[in-house]
Amino acid sequence: MTDEMEPIDDSTMVRRKIDNTLARFSAAHDQLEAEEAKRKQRLEKLTARPAQLLEQTRTRLQRVVGPAKDAATRMVAPAEAVEEAQSAEEVAPQTRLQEKKQRHNERTVRIGRITVVVLAVLVFLGTGAAWGTKTWFNSKFTQIAALDENSTDIQNANAQLGDENFIIAGSDTRAGATAEENVGSADDVEGARSDTVMLAHIPADRKRAVVISFPRDLEISRPACERFDSAKNDYTSELVPAATKVKLNTAYAVGGPRCLTKWVQQLTGMKINHFVGIDFSGFKDMVDAVQGVTVHVDSPIKDSVLGMVVSQTGDVTISGDQALSFVRARHVIGDPTSDYGRIKRQQEFISALMAKVMSHGVLTNPTQLSDFVTAFAKSTFGDNIGVDQMLTLAQSMKGLDPSKVNFMTVPTTGESNSRGNEVLLESKAKAVFQALIDNTALPGTAPASPPPENQAGNGTAAGSHQSDQ
Questions:
Q1: Phi, psi angle pair for 336, to nearest 5°
Q2: 168 and 197 in contact (C-beta within 8 Å)?
Q3: What is the C-alpha separation between 183 and 465, in angstroms, rounded?
Q4: How many other C-beta atoms can be found within 10 angstroms of the C-beta atom of residue 159?
Q5: Counts for the chain of helices (H) and strands (E), in that order
Q6: What are the tens digits of pLDDT across the range 283-317?
Q7: 26-30, 97-101, 373-377 — which is least confidently predicted?
Q8: Could you tell me whether strands 422-424 and 412-416 are parallel, antiparallel, or unpaired per DSSP bridges?
Q9: Rounded CA Rg of the chain
Q10: Which of 14, 36, 144, 397 qualifies as a cystine partner to 354, CB 3.0-4.6 A?
Q11: pLDDT greater at residue 221 or residue 401
């Protein structure tokens, strides 16, 4: 270790740099060890749950059957006492009524014991079936490496313990697109793009949720990344060099989920522990599984590329290709905001979809719930995702309490530069991300009662592009 009082020369600076690096590695190791212990503890609780349910059910049933068994014992005991007391005399034979009552009591005890066994088996089978179903659903998710939870870009990692940070990327490939979708084919548009990028933050106390959208044309400095092969959902050995003044969607197009996560962590300093990619080609199956989603439309939506999207106004239930066009449209006639208008519609739609999925009607309908999870898993890929993680996200984003769900857009100037890119307001963006790391109120909001523009589905919040213009 170096001495802070010794003269500072080149060798001293090198030793101090090594000391600082070792300290960071030690802190990262301790944090990783603590998280691994928590994971093991959660796993032990989950594996112990079926046995606990079985034991609790068996105990309760024994309490119910016990009195009958005790009653039968009490009926037999007097006969034994008489036999002992009158050993020299012959016991009087039982009447037919007494024999009938004794047989009834014995039969009741046998039925009670059989009932305990049968119900215990049913509980065990039911718990095992639920466990097996959950395991099956988890196996349906396609896992793609995306996370770097020990990145040096993460700031104040201790303050973020217990936080759940999801990157949600809409991968808008043309593979499998139909003519009705009117978006072209894989031959026309190759590869995959992250036309939708959201950061969903759920703090450890689970008292709020903040969802931040990033414009696809946001100008960024892209880090050096391994090239991603979208056809194989895997990375190659080619290293793509860093680039400046490029669009955000190039990060995913070049380096896939891992590159996008790397850029988000560099920008925000937040620890990303979940990546969720959704292929829009399968998006409509999720919507159809819950029999459509209801959105509010103030005026008809017609896109110069996609055509008429929604002709009705008011509360409209949409599904299938119409729902897909609703979240894709970015050339809406009469909407000068272009990508910002699309972001607002996407936020409203995702909030409505999560609310529908978590509604009583879907959760209590095995067919709808199974169809939705199956469709979701089929068109979803990512890192550290499964049934439990998606339920946490859905419960936080369902928008049933608007005062606790903030949808916003990362602060920008709201105007494109000469390269056609959106320009980030770095100081305002930094203040937003710092508030999320520290779990404090967002800039411009009151901790107890956020203003109306911060409510779910509005699409704006403190620090959004509209308030920065």
A1: -75, -10
A2: yes
A3: 28
A4: 13
A5: 11, 17
A6: 788 899 889 999 999 999 999 999 999 999 999 99
A7: 26-30
A8: antiparallel
A9: 31
A10: 397
A11: 221
Give me the mean pLDDT over the 345-364 stretch. 81
From residue 282, alpha-carbon distances to 323, 350, 359 in Å are 11, 15, 22
Mean per-residue pLDDT, 260-268: 97
What would the mean pLDDT of 39-63 be, rounded to a whole number?
A: 59
- The phi, psi pair for 365, rounded to 5°, reads -110, 100
| Whole-number Å distance between alpha carbons of 266 and 149 | 12
User: CA-to-CA distance for 218 and 423, rounded, in angstroms?
Assistant: 6
* pTM for this prediction: 0.63
The number of residues in the chain equals 469
Cα 421 to its chain centre, rounded Å, is 30
Using the predicted structure, report yes or no on whether residue 226 has a pLDDT greater than 60.
yes
d(CA 313, CA 68): 66
Say if residue 229 is exposed, middle or buried (CB neighbours under 10 Å; 0-12, 13-18, 19+). Answer: middle
Strand partners, 314: 297
Q: Please state, in angstroms and rounded to a whole number, the distance separating the CA atoms of residues 368 and 46.
A: 26
Tell the residue number behind the tokens 């995913």, with chain if given.
252
**Tokens for 439?**
């779990």
- What is the rounded average pLDDT for all residues in the chain? 75
- Taking the CA atoms of 401, 403, 405 and 407 in sequence, report the sign of the dihedral they define: positive
Q: Are 192 and 253 in contact (CB under 8 A)?
A: yes
Q: Distance of CA 9 to CAs 2, 5, 16, Å? A: 12, 12, 11
In the numeric block, the tokens 């963006």 are attached to 429
Kindly report, residue by residue over 169-180, the tens digit of the pLDDT.
Answer: 987 654 444 444
